[in-house]
Amino acid sequence: MSNLLEIETANFLTFLGAQRLKPDSVFLLVMGMTGSGKSSLIADCTGRDDAQIGHDLASCELRGFSELQQNEQDETNTRAGTNSIAIFRTGLHDRDVYLIDTPGFDDTNREDVDVLTALAHYLSVSYANNVSINGVLYLHRISDTRIGSSTRRNLEMMKALCGEDAFGNVAIVTTMWSSDHFGIEYAKQCSREKELRDIYLHDMLEGGSRIVNHNQCQTLSQRRSSARNILDMMFDTWKDTKATLKIQHEMVDLNLTLKRTSAGKVLEEEIKSHQRSFERELKALGVPGGRCEGQQRRSADVLLETRDSEIRRMLAENNQALDTMRLSLLEIHKKQERRFIEQVSMMQKEWKDTLREKEEEYRLKDLEYRNRSLYRQEKEINQRKRDIQELQTNSRRLVATESALEYERETFRDLARQGHRQPVELQQVSRFQHGELMKSKQRDKLLEEELEKLRSELETLREETQSKVDTTEKVKREWVGPLLQGVTTGGLGLVGACITAGMLCCVQ
Ligand SMILES: Nc1nc2c(ncn2[C@@H]2O[C@H](COP(=O)(O)OP(=O)(O)O)[C@@H](O)[C@H]2O)c(=O)[nH]1
Ligand SMILES: [Mg+2]
């Protein structure tokens, strides 16, 4: 796990230009709405299906602006990996290929602004530090029966983020094809593909984009080979070309605020249209509740009030999202420092808490074990004491009996009989005690094994936690630290690019 974190961190820093990279590395951005198959395609290309941690790191960014104010309520959602950016590396013809998994624009407005902010931030920082995107894979589910608003929104955002000049570096990858090439479903999907080409993607295809089908396959190896073929094909096409995405040019070269970029405008228009419909609804809610009376009227009022406050909350949220988009790259970057460090500290605290819990669990188990073994020893000692006492009593009796032997023959016979019975009784008692002892030893053995397992788990967890903490500290040092120092001192690429564009005055 910690090893994965290190790999992801290295990929992350490489993409941002904060770590040395092979000059012929290839970067492919993977976009598309949630559920279009991005993570699966990447997993099939890289052979990795455990890609989670990179999402954790980058989710710091996504949780940055409005979301942190919202506290922890959608922690699991953010952590689930659908809501964050992650970077994976694979090799092709001795070259490094980085696949950048991105979240879709299909949530609430607030989250879409966060997604755009994060994408704009990452893409711009890496561009400012001379890392270029070679191509974009945009995934589209051909199985969807209609092009809904969410699909349209994702398409529009992708077009606006890439810009016409980069259309030649975009491939639309259609996923989720029916495997029965003679069935009705497949025929419908083919006609949907045509509709896509003729209507929704017409401008992109004109601009040099292409459509590639990711065939639905029966087996895992067939699916992997289809994914790998797509990667091969796109690698061959783009390996020696570099694309400047429109958002990169707008934010770095032109130093526009996010709101004034093409993608920002698309999102702003979308949010404003939501605002308008909210306001219309709010107005309509003000109308008296018709002809109902009494209890009915009261329930209607409660419903109206609930909806009213819900709409007001959404309006406020949207306004806040629009405010966020007023920031320039440098402002976003500065603002992000505190968020990022806070988030990393939270992650580190979580890991350390887990370690502490494990240590406590181990301590308690160890105490229990010691307690048990002390108790057993005490029991054994007491038993021995009793044995000794019995022996002493017997021996005293024997001495007395011997001295009285002459006179007490009858007593001697009784004692002899008793002596005959005694060993049998003693044997029974000692067999019982032996059984108890064995059981207790068995329990101890199990406990010892458990303790040993716990000890080794604890040791591993300690090492992992230390390694994860070291790794995140490295991100803080190598990414946030230097780049942000660069922002203030004018030392690094991000500022360098702004100087190149004659924007130093804006920076200061
Ligand atoms: N039938 C089919 N299912 C797919 C395909 N690609 C992905 N899936 C499934 O679709 C779901 C969403 O895929 P995922 O890769 O998580 O989408 P993402 O949100 O874009 O990353 C998962 O359950 C995948 O197993 C495909 O080509 N065909
Ligand atoms: Mg995903």
Descriptive notes:
With 508 residues, the protein is α/β, with parallel strands linked by helices. It has 3 domains: 2-254, Rossmann fold (3-Layer(aba) Sandwich); 262-326; 332-499. The protein contains 17 helices and 6 strands. It has helices at residues 2-15, 38-46, 53-62, 66-69, 75-79, 109-128, 149-162, 184-200, 202-206, 220-238, 246-253, 262-285, 294-324, 329-403, 409-489, 493-500, 504-507, and strands at residues 26-32, 86-92, 95-101, 135-141, 170-175, 210-213. The protein has a 6-stranded mixed beta sheet with strand order 2-3-1-4-5-6, with helices on both faces. The longest helix has 81 residues, at 409-489. The radius of gyration is 36 Å and the shape is elongated. The site of guanosine-5'-diphosphate has 13 residues, from helix 2. The site of magnesium ion has 5 residues, from helix 2.
The major beta sheet can be summarized as: 6 strands, mixed
In the CATH hierarchy, what is the architecture of the largest domain at level 2?
3-Layer(aba) Sandwich
| CATH top level class name of the largest domain | Alpha Beta
β content, as a range? Answer: 5-15%
Poorly predicted regions are: 51-82, 484-508
How would you spell out the order of helices and strands? Answer: HEHHHHEEHEHEHHEHHHHHHHH
**What gap, in angstroms, lies between the N and C termini?**
42 Å
Work out the helix count.
17
What's the rounded overall pLDDT mean? 80
Shape: elongated
**Helix fraction?**
55-70%
What is the assigned CATH homologous superfamily of the largest domain?
P-loop containing nucleotide triphosphate hydrolases
Give the bound compounds.
guanosine-5'-diphosphate, magnesium ion
What is the gyration radius calculated from CA atoms? Answer: 36 Å
Main sheet: strand order? 2-3-1-4-5-6
Number of strands: 6
CATH fold description of the largest domain: Rossmann fold
Class by SSE composition = alpha/beta
